[in-house]
Amino acid sequence: MPYRPGFLQRARLDLLAAVLLLGSSACADDGDSGDGQGGSSGSDGTSSASGDSSASAGTTAGTTASTSASTSGGSSSDGGGTTEAADSGSSDGGSTGGSTGGGVCEDMIPAVVTDIDETLTLSDAEFLLQLADGNYDPVERDGASEMINGYYDRGYRVLYLTSRAETLVTAITNETAREATERWLMEHEFPLDPDKTMVILSPNLVLGDSAQAYKADALMSLQAEGWEFDYAYGNATSDIGAYAEAGIALDHTFIIGPHAGEGGTMAVAGDGWVDHASMWLPGVPMVCEAA
């Protein structure tokens, strides 16, 4: 049975969140002074204003992504009134924008992008608990690893794109946010392959619009290198906005949680990905990558 924090644990989370928010204000002030970074929050899906420069964040994120490739790799239980019927669309999806639907031999690199917090994990609070105690194992949404492996097994590149900040360190285990993230992905059997997967963290704490700008810039930087994002997964409005800015087809953008279906995205109901994956993945074409 997944660990659920009681009163004392929730108090620790509130204190940790307050510390992160105070730290973010300092980061935002530094960004205004000329470094172009900024924002706050160690997890995805939060909202706030930030003084960061999206262009600078995108450039730094691209650099972080390259480094990552060489080394490998509040929650809502309902879908906001959505239904599983939204998952039963055809596999070709009528792609729009910068997405082709995959399954073709071309110079582009077919890929899937996914957020981590409250998308692959059960809630944003899971990462806060891990920051408070590096030994804590964030609860995975049912079927998340199987779903991402389904794309990987079909030949798609996998991008894990999170607003977790590279600067964060876990208590007790003293792991960097990247080390804790990659360890969690490995222990939960998500695909981690230096040639086929990439993990991108924000260079600094970001929130709301700044999180969206950072994610959009990271996606577009990879698109300029030939990545073609045919499918996207998330839970937050920053995910929805970033995926739209990058031109990912709305009918291939799957959102779980309270914001499911917003902005014309595909709503996924419930707490997990099992039903969605069982209905959707059989229709996803295999990738024939260019030599």
Distance between the termini: 46 Å
Based on secondary structure, the structural category is alpha/beta
Mean pLDDT across all amino acids: 76
Strand order of the largest sheet: 3-2-1-4-5-6
Which percent band covers the strand fraction? 5-15%
The CATH architecture would be: 3-Layer(aba) Sandwich
The description of the largest β-sheet is: 6 strands, parallel
In the predicted model, the low-confidence regions spanning at least 5 consecutive residues are 1-13, 21-103
Strand runs, count: 6
CATH superfamily: HAD superfamily/HAD-like
Globally, the shape reads globular
Order of helices and strands: HHEHHEHEHEHEEH
Tally of domains: 1
Helix content: 25-40%
**CATH class identity:** Alpha Beta
Examine the coordinates and then state which fold CATH places here, giving the name of the CATH topology: Rossmann fold
Highlighted features:
disordered N terminus, 8 helices, six-stranded parallel beta sheet, 37% helix, Rossmann fold, single chain
Task: Give a quick precis of the structure.
With 291 residues, this protein is an alpha/beta fold. Helices cover 37% and strands 12% of the residues.
